[in-house]
Amino acid sequence: MKQKYDSGVGFTLVELLVVVGVIVILTAIILPNYRSATSQFALERSAHKMSQDIRRAAEMAMSAKELPGGGIPVGGYGIFFNIGTGGSDKKYILFADTDPLPDGNGYFSGSDIPIEEIELEKGVVIQSINTPNNRVGINFKPPAPTVRIKFNPGPGASVDTTIITLALESGPTKTIKVNKAGLIDVE
């Protein structure tokens, strides 16, 4: 007569089905929130990167950073935002203000040198800029630096504060405020 030994290590079919059911339910709850959180983090990262890039332009102006071919731009360094055609709502430009005016024009124009074109993260766009033409140049002219926030290259086309709104295609937004003192606020 053979004896059966029960070591108590096995699982019953019911126990396995319960564990698999719990895993399926948790996955169904977590997966949709994961995608939403990923998009929200992309928006958050883009807003903070944009504020860092604005600060980088100020640091380049204060340190009198030389251009690759030599020389220091007369108008300093700046960031240019333009909501228009050709995907410009998904990128912005870090530039050296080399306009021939005595102190540059404080705005990105044909005579300026683009240093870097910066793309926003996937799914993030520049939704609005609080200027009449949805364009703004934030320029830092050394040595202090003097902050110029302009929506056109001409005289009188400046504002004291600019608000740039970033958005996800699905709705949530972040705002970046920059004032004439060079203070940057991300909300």
For the largest sheet, list the strands in their spatial order.
Answer: 3-2-1-5-6
Distance between the ends: 79 Å
CATH classification class: Alpha Beta
Question: What fold name goes in the CATH topology slot?
Answer: minor pseudopilin epsh fold
Number of strands: 9
* Percent helix range: 25-40%
Number of helices: 1
What is the name of the CATH superfamily?
minor pseudopilin epsh domain
Provide the β-strand percentage band: 25-35%
Radius of gyration: 26 Å
Which stretches of 5+ consecutive residues score pLDDT under 50? none
Number of domains: 1
Biggest sheet overview: 5 strands, antiparallel
What topology does this entry show?
Layout: H1 13-62, E1 77-82, E2 91-96, E3 113-119, E4 124-129, E5 135-141, E6 146-150, E7 161-168, E8 173-179, E9 184-186
Antiparallel strand pairs: 1-2, 1-5, 2-3, 4-7, 5-6, 7-8, 8-9
Describe this structure in words.
The structure is a single chain. With 187 residues, this protein is of the alpha+beta class. It has one domain: minor pseudopilin epsh domain (minor pseudopilin epsh fold). The chain is 27% helix and 29% strand. The chain is built from one helix and nine strands; from the N terminus they run H-E-E-E-E-E-E-E-E-E. The strands form two sheets. Strands 3-2-1-5-6 form a five-stranded antiparallel sheet, with helices on one face. The protein has a four-stranded antiparallel sheet with strand order 4-7-8-9, with helices on one face. The longest helix is centred in the first third of the chain and has 50 residues. The radius of gyration is 26 Å and the shape is elongated. The N and C termini lie far apart (79 Å). 28% of the residues are buried. The mean pLDDT is 87.
